[in-house]
Design goal:
The protein is an alpha+beta fold. The chain has 15 helices and 8 strands. The strands form 3 sheets. It has a 3-stranded antiparallel sheet with strand order 1-2-3. Strands 6-7-8 form a 3-stranded antiparallel sheet. Strands 4-5 form a two-stranded antiparallel ribbon. Helix 3 runs antiparallel to helix 4 and helix 4 packs antiparallel against helix 11. The chain is globular, with a radius of gyration of 21 Å.
C-alpha cells in the first residue's frame, strides 16, 4: 500500500479472507479499492503459525525431520530433502548413489503432484471446474506410489539424514515407469482444456505482470521468476543429489503474467517426467544409508543449503553447538518470499483478478506462517 493514503468517497478498504476460499488457506488480504480497481493491498498472515523453527531447538536432529513435512504440506518430500541435505552438509556426510537417485525420483514425483494440485485449484478459482477432477485423477496415481513406499500420501516422510528411510518395494520401478508412460497424454488433455480456451486466456493474459527486475527486487524464485524470463533453477545452477547427471530443460516465459506462469508449470511437469525416467533407468544398486552415528552431534558450525522446491527456492540455515539438538534452524520458504510481490502484481487490476493472482503465485499458508 502507498505510505500516504487519503480515503475519499471513491475509495474503499475491503477484507478478502481469511475465510475466502480462494485465499488458499487462511490468508487475509486488505484491498484498497477504487470501485472494482485495486489501488493496493496488504497481506495479513500468521493465522496458521505453529512455531516450527522454535520446535527444532527442543527436538533432536532426527526428531525434527518430520516437522518440516508439515510446512508445505503438498510438497512434503521436498521439505524433507532440503533439511536432510543441510544437516548432511553440516556433518560432512553424503547419501549413497542409490539413495540420491531415489530421492530425485520421489522429489520430482512430488513436484508433479504439487503442480497438479495447483493447476486444479487455480482453474477452480477462476471458474473452470473440469480440470480439478482431471488433475486429481492423475495425482492419485502418484500418491499411490508414495503410499506404497512409506505409508503416507500427503505429509510424506520419505528420507533420513544420510539417506533413505526405506528401501524401494518390489514393483517400485515398474509403477514409476508406468506413471511416466501414462502422464504425458494427460498433460495434453489439460492443455486442450485450457491453453487455447478464450475464457482462460481472457482471465490470465496480461494479468498480474511481474517483470524480471521486480522478481529480483522481491527475491521471487521458482516458476514465478522463470515466467518472467529469468532462467534460474537451482537444480542446474547449484546441483544437488546428482541433478547434474540428468538431461532436462528449464522452461521460461516472456511476459511474466498469469498465463506464462501456467505454461511454465505445465512444461515443468513434462521435464520432471524426463528426470524421473532417467533416474529409474539408471538406478544404481548398493546401500541406501551413509555412515551416520546413532546419536547425532554435528560439529560446531553453521551452513545454508537450498533446493529447487515446486514453489521456488527452499533454504535451510542450520546452526550446531555440538549437542544432540539444533541450536537454531531458520527456514527460507518460497511461498513466504513470493507473497511479498502480491501488492505489485495486483495494482491496477480488478477484484476478480486478485483471485487469479493469488492462485498463480501458488502459496501454501503452512509454509508462509510456519
Amino acid at each position: 500500500m502507498p505510505d500516504v493514503t487519503f480515503l475519499d468517497a471513491n475509495e474503499l478498504v475491503l477484507n478478502m479472507g481469511p475465510q475466502h476460499p480462494s485465499t488458499h488457506g487462511v490468508l487475509r488480504v486488505i484491498l484498497k479499492l477504487d470501485g472494482e480497481k485495486v489501488l493496493g493491498c496488504e497481506c495479513v498472515i500468521g493465522y496458521l503459525h505453529r512455531g516450527v523453527e522454535k520446535i527444532a531447538e527442543n527436538r533432536t536432529w532426527m526428531q525434527f525431520a518430520p516437522y518440516v513435512d508439515r510446512m508445505d504440506y503438498v510438497a512434503a518430500v521436498s521439505n524433507g530433502l532440503g533439511y536432510c541435505l543441510a544437516v548432511e552438509k553440516l556433518m560432512s556426510v553424503e547419501a549413497p548413489p542409490r539413495a540420491q537417485a531415489v530421492r530425485v525420483i520421489l522429489t520430482e514425483l512430488n513436484r508433479i503432484t504439487s503442480h497438479l494440485l495447483w493447476l486444479g485449484t487455480h482453474a477452480l478459482d477462476i471458474g473452470a471446474i473440469t480440470p480439478v477432477f482431471y488433475c486429481f485423477r492423475e495425482r492419485e496415481e502418484a500418491l499411490k506410489i508414495f503410499e506404497n513406499y512409506c505409508g503416507a500420501r500427503l505429509t510424506t516422510h520419505a528420507f533420513r539424514i544420510g539417506g533413505l528411510q526405506y528401501e524401494t518395494y518390489d514393483t517400485f520401478e515398474k509403477e514409476v515407469l508406468a506413471f511416466c508412460d501414462m502422464f504425458p497424454a494427460k498433460v495434453d488433455e489439460y492443455e486442450e482444456l485450457l491453453t487455447g480456451n478464450r475464457i482462460w486466456l481472457g482471465r490470465t493474459r496480461g494479468v498480474g505482470i511481474l517483470t524480471a527486475e521486480d522478481c529480483k527486487d522481491f527475491g521471487v524464485t521458482g516458476p514465478v521468476l522463470r515466467a518472467s524470463g529469468v532462467e534460474w533453477d537451482l537444480r542446474k545452477a547449484q546441483p544437488y543429489s546428482g541433478y547434474e547427471k540428468y538431461d532436462f530443460a528449464i522452461p521460461t516465459g516472456r511476459n511474466g503474467d498469469t498465463f506464462d506462469r501456467y505454461i511454465v508449470r505445465i512444461q515443468e511437469m513434462r521435464q520432471s517426467l524426463r528426470i524421473i525416467r532417467q533416474a529409474v533407468e539408471g538406478l544404481p544398486t548398493g546401500p541406501i544409508m551413509g555412515k551416520v552415528p546413532k546419536v547425532m552431534k554435528p560439529p560446531v558450525g553453521e551452513c545454508y543449503v537450498s533446493i529447487e522446491a515446486p514453489k521456488g527456492e527452499l533454504g535451510y540455515f542450520v546452526v550446531s553447538d555440538n549437542s544432540t539438538q539444533p541450536y537454531r534452524v531458520r527456514v527460507r520458504p518460497p511461498s513466504f518470499v513470493n507473497l511479498q510481490a502480491l501488492d505489485r502484481m495486483c495494482r491496477g487490476s480488478l477484484i476478480a483478478d486478485v483471485v487469479a493472482i493469488i492462485g498463480t503465485i501458488d502459496i501454501v499458508l503452512g509454509e508462509v506462517d510456519r
